[in-house]
Model the fold of this input.
Amino acid sequence: MKRWADEGLVQATRTVGGHRRIPLSEAIRFIRHIGATITHPDILGLQELATLPAAATSGKSAGEALYAALESGDAAVCRGLVQSMYVGGMSVAQICDGPVREAMVRMGELWLHQEWGIAVEHRATDICIQALNQLRFLQPAPRDDAPVALGGAAEEDPYMLPSLACAAVATEAGLRDINLGPRTPLRVMLNAAKHYHASLVWITISTASEPRKLAEDLANMANALQPQRCSVIIGGRSAGQFLPADIPGVHTSGTMAQLSAFARGLTAGSGQPPTVGPDRANDHSGS
Ligand code: B12
Done:
């Protein structure tokens, strides 16, 4: 560790006594970078990795394992699973697009069979919120001058996880994220984006009762934010399904991976808003 720190492969500061101090986020970045196996996760404060029962993962895909733990309501195992995916090298975007989405799609089938499924689904949402927030805490603090990314879900949209996923992805990309969460009127988002000089506004759309009006409001928002060179990007299960593909000034995307690429383009400092691929295929409407 000393050699790696002295060679600059691991960023360390010195304590008053001259010892090397490595922030947790930096240690985790390095572990992911070299693909190391953590034998004593508890030393890093990752207790939930240490206590992860082998049965939680054996013979299951990441999505199946997460679903099983969510269904039985084992929050510690769920958080541990998500941590292990991240420490094992998956990006926040991959975790959200993959296991989290997959598990929640299956969760959404439960209520069709019995009312108890509604309780299980609501509990699963809360547990995923805990797990994603924990991932946010494992990220290094963004630079003070990093671009601001801000967003939420529109007024009538109660879905919490998609916007939280956007925030976690923005943090991972090195942006300063401001998650306004569900049920946020677009004008509130617009004013906040102006106030914080945001460079990126994400809007997740899981439900849209008046898609035409929403598309119009989004176009107006993008227009109002153009002078500050702020990009508006929309996505979510209903974005591809109900909204027109070509809302002026608005980028439509399907996945967290694409949002991540877009956000990284901003931190790369190209000065040009990055482009988003024409991925409208990922509307998960049938799920
Ligand atoms: C949890 C949940 C709820 C919870 C949400 C709790 C909360 N506060 O967050 C509550 C209880 C509110 C709820 C309510 C309802 N729900 Co619901 N819900 C779900 C469920 C199980 C999971 C949604 C979720 O959080 N997914 C996790 C996120 C991370 O995944 P995602 O939304 O797919 O997002 C991904 C992409 O779209 C993309 N993305 C998302 N946003 C953005 C943004 C940007 C910028 C980008 C680039 C990408 C992007 O990235 C994400 C990761 O890949 C889904 C199941 C499903 N198949 O989606 C049903 C589901 C969506 N619900 C459904 C239904 C029917 C309802 C209700 C009508 C039930 C009722 N009778 O009341 C209500 C309607 C509420 C409303 N006003 O619209 C149906 C919809 C059916 C349909 N075809 O329209 C589903 C599909 C369940 C099912 N199979 O029947 N629901």
